Amino acid sequence: MLKFDFVYLLEQIPKLVPYLDITFLVLILTLFFGTILGFILAAWKLGIRPILSKLAYAFTTAMRCTPSIVLLFLVYYGLPALASIFAFDLNDLSKLFFVVTAFSLSFGNVMSEIIRSSYLAVEKGQYEAAVSVGLTRFDAFRRIILPQAAVVALPNIINSILTLLKEGSLAYTIGLIDVMGKANLLIAMNYEAHALETLLALSFIYWSISIIIEKANELLEQRLSKGRTFVKTV
Amino acid sequence: GSDTDKTEKKANVKKVKVAYAQNSKPITYTDANGKPAGHDVEIMKLVDGLLPQYEFEFIPTTDDDLLLGVEQGKYDVGIKNTFYTEARAKKYIYPKEFLGLSSFGLVLRKDDANIKTLADFAKAGKTLAPIAANNAQYTVIEEFNQKNPDNKVKLEAGDAFTVNVIAYVSEGRSDGGAIIEGQYDQKVRSADGPYHSLDDKLVYNEVDVIKTWPLFNKKQQELADAYDGAIKQLKAEKKTNELSKQFYGRDLYEVLAKVNR
Amino acid sequence: MQTLDLHFMWEAFFIALSGAPITLLITVVALLISIPVGFFFSLIRLNGTPILDQLCRIYISFVRGTPLIIQIFLIYNVMPILLERFLRSTHSTLSVFDVNPIWYAFVVFSLYTIAILTEVFRSALKTVQKSQLEAAHSVGLSTCAAYRRIIIPQALVTALPNLCNATTNLIKNTSLCYALSLREITLRAKVAANPGYNYIEAYIDIFLVYLLICSLVEYGFKKYEKKLKAYQCLSA
Amino acid sequence: MLEVREIRKAFGNQEVLSGISFSIEKGDVAVILGPSGSGKTTLLRCLEFFEQADSGEVLFDDIDVDLRNVTKEQIKAIRQKTAFVFQNYNLFNNKTALENVLEGLVIGRKIPKKEAEAIAKEALDKVGLSDKYAYYPSQLSGGQQQRVGIARAIALSPEIIFFDEPTSALDPELIGEVLATMKKIAKEGTTMLVVTHEMSFAQDVANKIIFMDGGSIVEEGTPRQIFTEPKEERTRQFLKRMLPEYTYYI
Amino acid sequence: MLEVREIRKAFGNQEVLSGISFSIEKGDVAVILGPSGSGKTTLLRCLEFFEQADSGEVLFDDIDVDLRNVTKEQIKAIRQKTAFVFQNYNLFNNKTALENVLEGLVIGRKIPKKEAEAIAKEALDKVGLSDKYAYYPSQLSGGQQQRVGIARAIALSPEIIFFDEPTSALDPELIGEVLATMKKIAKEGTTMLVVTHEMSFAQDVANKIIFMDGGSIVEEGTPRQIFTEPKEERTRQFLKRMLPEYTYYI
Ligand SMILES: Nc1ncnc2c1ncn2[C@@H]1O[C@H](COP(=O)(O)OP(=O)(O)OP(=O)(O)O)[C@@H](O)[C@H]1O
Ligand SMILES: Nc1ncnc2c1ncn2[C@@H]1O[C@H](COP(=O)(O)OP(=O)(O)OP(=O)(O)O)[C@@H](O)[C@H]1O
Ligand SMILES: [Mg+2]
Ligand SMILES: [Mg+2]
To answer: Can you list the alpha helix ranges (DSSP code H) found in D108-170?
Structure first.
């Protein structure tokens, strides 16, 4: 075993940080598309059209049961294969495209369940009161249901965002290099010698980002919880 | 003038996607500047230089993706220190000419220096550090086990990410580990290797020298043939010997006569 | 595109399936540990118990904030070495390296799932009105009984979909056990694929096995959610 | 302005409304009386489309709704003209008292913020809550919550307001005040359909009494008719408890 | 049996209870009257320890509680002897009417299931819900829910029951029945502390009236004293609304 080399650890950080741009790009694009997908799926599940709701549930089952790596390969290989039937060549598209597509599908699916469960957790009376004062369904959702549901949803959303943040190891399997991929490369380049230091440097970066996200979440949760009381044991 | 020349040239030149495993230094890897590097990569660059009708684009990726990608046609050719097996030959085109030679052996603690072959190793009941399942070394040992059902090496699949063979052996977590000599050289023997301090505690015992191959997509017969022509020329010019020395610290072509796979 | 080697796929399917017991064992053990502990942690967080709450937060933030594979690395590669040194210094004859790697898997996945479930439970408990607890107290139920019989059944309705997500994710994450050389589903399939490079077939098999397991799990959750929701649906 | 024909509603196989028909004119104050569980709340909820009736017809001004197939537009149109005071208040948990009242004005009726605020404050003042603007529902007493619910409805100045037991949580003093407010609104021409157990309101303000039992209308008429000479034995029996009081007021 | 000394409670810097003291004896039926927002609910909640009072003392039988530092054992001991009827019912959402009543008997009081079921059914029958055993709260009308809440409390046969407006959602007919039930329980010796706006109950059953306003007790005494010769102007003013009725009943 080599001596733990703290200086080495510190040296790795500036080498890793530049690759955060890919990490964030993937994160933000996925958040954007995934959330939209999540809302659509949740709306279908909660809606009255049986076909759409069956479809949405089936999608959820499929997504839940697909390991992310398989999903990524399905998108990375399957999509171009599918497109080639229609004489499109997707093989030259950026790897980013495939990664974001795959992540959005699975993130959107998780979001749809989070949205569904938190939506159902808001009493029906709140919706009724809202439409009774003339709010449209959309306004009722936006102004009354959503803020209350968000309190319930947030901890779970943060769970998934943090998971998503770290999915870099998956992107790496098809050769897209984000911080995680870069850490892998750094380790490989040093013949796995200072793996521990490099990984700790990586963890440090991830952890810092997570702490920022969690702090933001805390503030938001507090704001949304205004006027509400929750169960405690004492 | 020159502008039209370039475009004209471009039009005739076929792009070739060469996938390489980006994390097996010194065979193939991505260097600190994000550029492709390593023994196999350098050879392919030379091949590219000899083939004006092709332009190689090197794409870094992982083993899994490389194998799938070449099979599917996402990449035209892949290099990752691949050995030859029958089954693989069904999936990919192996060219006629091999790409390089690779010394494959066991890293052991000094006390076990007398273990020279896999058979010795198995007989002594030693434990082997886990090997990534898609690594060629795994196949070699598995084949050994198939041929020697009464004297099997205990083989475990693992992952390169967590299994650091040198560390495993030196710490006594396992008795031996499979390794490519080039890697052992750079890690342990070389004066600035990260494990140079272990140089007097460990030994590398060669088990075999094995030919490594590029894998071509099934549709790339033409490319494979072109490759054959080019690499023949390189071997004749002894360029390959130079690279072997440069990356593996030793001219493996000296033992070519004894290589049987 | 090449045709699939169906024969291989058929055989490898069962090879992959034979890894299911390990996957399920890890999943079950991790859940058995992390459901009660996660619940306990969520109570600490909801109550804002002074020091414990801070500790919980740091723990959760670390576990959620760093990649699972790194946690595996730390626990599998670093911890044993430290332990080994410690044991050697105490002249113990125990060998850390002889420990079956599955124990590492239990530890890693439990630690991870606890963090996830803490947040799942915390959010779910927030959906139960405080007055439900008061009503339970008023008829003489202890806090414990109130939670068991009134609060938890109501919170579970919200928790279940997320619990189901967490469980299926856990099942899929056990594929990271390849890093522990544990022969679970993914690793077995990949090893089987290795000699013939039948990676596509192997991945399809992996997909099918997970599909089988996860859809059974999901089916169970759906059934249970329906049952728990009996008191709500009727009015909706 | 509101005519209801043969509304039926069953939960499972228990029929809760078994063919309710009545009509009220503009400016009417109609009171629905009836024992607990007789379907009063369910009736109001069906009229506001919170509950889907199994069959029946509702005529609201010129909107003719077949309850078996209601369109979204019809629901929206009717809800724009009505307001609802809930038996269990249903205040917006995430909004203060003032915001609860503002919501419908600003978002629902698109009244400019400034103006809406004046209206909302006036409504809250009317029900005696001028010092509770910034309180969240969880910080209000039962009676205060109920009054916010009332303020929220009357602030909208809708054509018709459905009240579901609007004074149940109030003390006699306040009941007086709230009923006076309702009386005033009625005088201003707002139509009201009120479920209440408050006989004095029924007598003083209502011009129509509907007595329900077991999902049907047992009897309807003017307060005078119902209170002094009820035709049905069931009505008489129900009112017996209150008659002494009634006698006094007369 | 219950003595309360100088309970104080503030939310933020708004004092809601400013030093409440009174005492009731075994078998007493004490009624708390007072306008909305005067702190009645808060007082009851402090006595059941749902709200932590800022200071004060409670003597319950031989248990002497300093509200500034209450132990868990004291809370438990007192809750075992009391029951609470909530202003907004607070039924267990995930339990049927019968289960709501059973819960406290079987789990709280450890009464064998069989026996408990008989008691629970009897309690529900008393409040006229013999046909709703298997209904969930969401399937019950407001009045039905309120009655389940009452049944849940009386089934426990505690030494003292706190009622917070137990008849607000009931129609006159039922109010009569429920009050009769409460009267019967009172006769059997159960002590009661009742917040209500139902004057007839205050007159008929109570032997003590406590009139609160703005967080303090304005006046207390027997019903006769309070209703016929209130000392305080505030009391007189509050009762004015009800006096006609009262006069009648006398
Ligand atoms: N979702 C439901 N499922 C089944 N039964 C229901 C449901 N909602 C209401 N009921 C039943 O319908 C009947 C009428 O209920 P409703 O709420 O209309 O009564 P109400 O006249 O408003 O009574 P109250 O004066 O007590 O509020 C009740 O017996 C109730 O149990
Ligand atoms: N959590 C809280 N935060 C701030 N103020 C509160 C809170 N709870 C109650 N209050 C205030 O305390 C006062 C007393 O409330 P309480 O519920 O005791 O009144 P009440 O006498 O029961 O009235 P009602 O007859 O309307 O039920 C009210 O003015 C209310 O606004
Ligand atoms: Mg009702
Ligand atoms: Mg109150």
So the answer is: 113-126, 142-154
